[in-house]
Input
Amino acid sequence: MPKKEIFCPVEVTMGLIAGRWKVIAIHYLFDGPKRFNQLQRELRGVTHRTLTKQLREMEGDGIVLRKDYKEIPPRVEYSLSPLGKSLKPILLALHEWGEAYCKKEGANRIK
Amino acid sequence: MPKKEIFCPVEVTMGLIAGRWKVIAIHYLFDGPKRFNQLQRELRGVTHRTLTKQLREMEGDGIVLRKDYKEIPPRVEYSLSPLGKSLKPILLALHEWGEAYCKKEGANRIK
DNA sequence: CTTTACGGTATCCTTTTTGTGCGTACTTGC
DNA sequence: GCAAGTACGCACAAAAAGGATACCGTAAAG
Output
């Protein structure tokens, strides 16, 4: 999205979670800390470049934590910060609504 | 967003409301039906082309209704469908979280 | 007679986002 | 000794989103 002045809190939140893989990444991170490649495999389809970018953005926004163990071969763990965990109600709301929507969609297709 | 297979309901919902002006438009439509130009003025900054596109997409997804009065000069009213209105909890969650985030941001800046 | 408003469509262009593929430094397993 | 895995960075390319502008037909206002 191009830059735009944001006045409404709703947009603030959207600005932080809008990103092709962010919500799903957050979703998976609710299971607990994950290593980079583990996450990438779970998200099936992200390239490392994109995943890195989105995780780093979320780190910058304070919703994801990055722990670099400085080992060789590299080991990096991503996890949700408390702020990130506080997104749970939103994720739940999105999930619930999406599920209901899909059911309705299915029902409509039968007609 | 480029095309991508969607497996998770969370993504379904995000796919429908991700769009530069969609959530704010929905926000304003919670006030009641609005005419096109009225909405455009309220959203300060959208071009009519973009607003048209986003409204039509939402119409296609079933969350917005479009009533064309077939008058001259044209009169078209947009409103939320019941499905659109059912997004309220999500909007509220986004709003609440965004507000809390902004306060925290402000607090951090003072440090 | 000109301007303004309405609700768009069509065309072109810029910005933003995401993907592709290569390179890296080092270790472990075969 | 060679491949595979780890967590990226980087240059380049493609795709998608959004914006700028012109135009349309009609009518009311000035």
Summary: The longest strand of chain B covers residues 64-68. The two ends of chain B are 37 Å apart (CA to CA).
